[in-house]
Amino acid sequence: MIRRDFLLKSGLLGSAVFLPSLSMSCKSNTGIDHDDFYTPIRRKVMMVMLSTQKQNWEHGIACQAFVETGDETMMILMAKEAVLRQGDDGRLAVISVAAGINDSATPLEAVLRSYEILGDPELKKASDRMIKYLFEKAPRTEKGYIHHSYHGPELWADTIFMGAPFIAFAGYPEEAVKQVRGIREQLWIEEESLFAYRYNADLNEITNPKLWGLANAHALNGMAMLTERLPGNMATEIEEMKDYTRKHLDGCLNYIREDFLFHDTINDPSTFVETSLAMRVAHTIFKGVNAGWLDEHYLETAGNIRKAVYEKIDDLGNVMGVPGSPDYSDPGRSTEGQAFFLMMEAAFENLGEEHTRLIPA
Known about the structure:
- By secondary structure, this protein is mainly alpha-helical.
- The chain has one domain (34-352): Glycosyltransferase (Alpha/alpha barrel), CATH 1.50.10.
- 50% of the residues lie in helices and 6% in strands.
- A hairpin with a 4-residue loop joins strand 2 and strand 3 (194-195).
- Helix 2 (40-51) runs antiparallel to helix 14, helix 3 packs antiparallel against helix 4 (72-84) and helix 3 packs parallel to helix 14 (335-349).
- It is globular and about 50 Å long.
């Protein structure tokens, strides 16, 4: 993870100059050798991901997969496409009419890293516009929490991934933490250590209490990512996010199946068995153990999840069993499912030898 000098903002509107100046090169620090990383199965998964049609969050998650694998060429190509499809309001990767708000922030890290590498002023301009949209145009609750979509004044668990880590990466870490706290305040189910799906601010109630695997996958991964994207002078907030992530991880693992997968509704065994949460759990474990804030005992579970996921990949490279596009209500395949696999594999490759020896062969 690259560190930069963050310009901390106070207040939402004001006269802030958007896109703080980045102080360090954004070149890949993954240490992954692409010749080694792109094994035949990983390359197949990547090619399927590239072949899919993509809504804004799907394109952004695919961008982030290349950020995490350190594949700068593909990251730049995907970032430039997100900028090409930027809406008039500043949202990135918009095709036709998009209802999502935070969804369009998902390509932001790739765009910023690409700007650092290329110095292309169009990338900087696009990043400025995306940040300005989030701070000045995106609808918010009375407490300042960004609505998930234009469908109504709702907070979704998904937004913890879609917005917070990318807002922090762009130089607004305090705002990122604020958004996570707001969503957690409304959607965290303490007795389950899991997130409900959707909350309506006008009604002041949870309108979809489903403990959805995919939404919890986004939330878990978003909090883990945020721990890496907060600056060192926010040590208290970093520890807060680590604590949130550990509690959430344990809540998920309370419901893991014997085959190391999860049900679509985590606590409902009548729903289909799905793959997305498993990949995000393994990804979070690999990253957390490698960074030193998760105990090594989680690695055995993560290794078994990884083996189970490999069994879900078909001959063409489709990661099957995830909530499928376009409506994510039935098992199938999706852009984000492909991206989750690549992220999991990148985190696995970054483990040191002292950790990989603890994972079952």
